[in-house]
From TrEMBL:
SUPFAM superfamilies per record: GroES-like
Protein name per the record: Alcohol dehydrogenase-like protein
Domain Alcohol dehydrogenase-like N-terminal: 25-129
Pfam families the record matches: ADH_N (PF08240)
InterPro entries assigned: ADH-like_N, ADH_Zn_CS, GroES-like_sf
Gene3D superfamilies: Medium-chain alcohol dehydrogenases, catalytic domain (3.90.180.10)
Superkingdom of origin: Bacteria
Amino acid sequence: MKGLVYGGSGIRSWADVADARIQDPRDAIIRVDAVTICGTDLHILGGDVPEVEAGRVLGHEAVGTVVETGGAVAGLRAGDRVLASCISACGICRYCREGAYGQCRGGGGWILGHTIDGVQSEYARIPFADLST
């Protein structure tokens, strides 16, 4: 599949990337129907977010259609239209239980296009799908 890949400060390209796949039973795979670019993406492209490594698929804001779900996903099924949240929530840690999803310590927070591949691609993996769509 194709994805918008960060290549370092000021460098990006449409490139062939690995297909999105379920990696955790709480994941869903979506076909990305539309994305938006925000100021954070521009900061990444400007090299201002050093945690984003070259080779990362960009993007953390999308709408799409569910094509596959992991075995622990209860609230979604193939064909559902979803908004992929820019902030993922494990739902288990203290911060998520308090509604402070951006501080998630259970593997969520701002991860799409930051620490895992993002949504500016044909398909995307959405972790914690029941809580992050």
